[in-house]
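Would you mind writing out a protein's amino acid sequence and the numbers that encode its backbone to help me picture the idea?
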Amino acid sequence: MSGTSRRGGPIVEAEEDIYAFEPANNGAGPTWCCGSSCIARVGNDLFVSGLETIPGAKPLSNCLPTLFHRSKRGWEMVYRGQGRTREPAPIACWSDSSLWLSITTTLTAPDVYDGPAEPQVLRFSTTDPSAEPEVLPPVWEESAAFRPHTYRSFAADGLNKRLFLSYNVEYELAQWSFMDESERWTSNGILDWPVTTDFGDPLALRICYAASSVRDGEVHFVGAAPLWEPVAAWHEFKMDKGLTLRPDWDYVFRRLYYSATPDVTQSPFAPWLLLTRVEELAGHAMHCDLSVAADGSVHVLWIEKNIEHGAMRDAFFPDEKLTVSLNYCVIENSRVSSRRVILGWTEGSPGPVPTWARFHRTEDGRLFVLYACRLDSDSFGRSEYRLQEIGPQSDAAPMSLDLEAPLRGWFFTAGPRGGNRPSDVIDVLGERSDAHVMRYARLRVG
C-alpha cells in the first residue's frame, strides 16, 4: 500500500503483513521485549525477529525464535531456531553487514514448566542472512541462574560497533555484558537496583522492560520498577474484582528510574534518578523510549495514568477524574532539565487518549515522536497514529497518519538504539489490531 498526507506531512509508503502467529499463552508475545526492538534496517534490507509457537508444546518455553528478511522478493523467513524459548528475540545491527539476535534457550525438558536457560547472541551476515549464524555467548560477571523470564535489554552502537546486553537475574540485580568492535565481549558487570525504604525495610526495586542506549562506551538505562501492591485494601479489592492477571500476581508499575555511565568499561552506573511516581492514587507508569542527542542530552517518553483501573477510582477515589498522559522529559548532567505533556486526556473529554510512543531521529538530527492514540475514551474506539516534531522550545502540531490496518498495543521502530542509522524513513513493526499477525509499515517524514 502507498499513501499520501497533507502537503509537507508524513507519508505512509507501505503496509505489509509479515507472519501470523498463535498465542503461546506463556505471559509473553511478539512485542513483549518492548524496551528493545525486533526490527532493523541495514541499507535497503529490512530484518524482523519473530516468534513461532510450537503446536501442543507446554509453556513457558513453547516457542521458537525466527528471523525474517525483506528483499526485492518480499518477506521470507531465513532462520528458525531449534532451541525452545519463551520471549521474542531482540534485534540489533551494525552499520556494515552485521546483524545481531539475542535469544534465550531453555535447558529444561519439554514437559517442565520453568527452569534454567542459556543466553546467546547470534551474528548473521546481512549479505547472506540464510547462512548459519555465528554463536557468540555473552560473558558475565559471575555464574547466574538465568531463566526463560529475562526482562533483558539489547542495544547497539551501529557506527562504533558496540553491543550492550543486560539480563535480570531473579529479583536481585541485573548482569550486563559489553561487546566492542572486535566482536568480543570485553567487559561485564552488575547493575544493582534502586533501593527504597518507603514501605519499611530497605527494598530493592528491580527494573523491567528496560530501554538502553550505548554510544561507544557510554550507556543509558531507563525502566519501570514494579513492586507487589503495598496497600492491602487495594490488593484485596483487585483480587475480588479480577483486576490482576492471575490470583497470585499483583505487581504494580508506579515508578520509572534512570541511570547511566560515561564509560561502562571503566565507570560504575550513577545513582538512580527517579523520573516519576504515581502511587498516591494507585496509578500506572510505563516508559516508551529513550533517545540520546548529539549534545549528550537524554530524552525520555512515558505513558502515565493517575489511577490504573476505573473500578479502583469508583471504590477508593470517587471524586477524582481519570487522566492519561504521554510525557516527555530531558535529562542533562544527571538531572531532569525540562518536562512536559505531549498529549493528555482527562475523563469527561472525548479524546484522544495516548497509548504508546517511540522516538525517531532524522538524517538532519530532528527529533520526532510517533505515537498511537484512541480517538475517544472507549477502549474499543477508533485508533490513530500521529507524528510530532519535538523542538528545543515547543512542540510542532501533530500530523495524522492514515494506516490501513492500525496496530495493537506496543510497537517497535528501527531506531538508533538498535544500531540503525538516523533516517527520514520510519520502519514500524507491530501486531495488527484485528488479527494475530505481525505487520510492517514504512513511513516517510515530510
Summary: DSSP finds two helices and 30 strands in the chain.
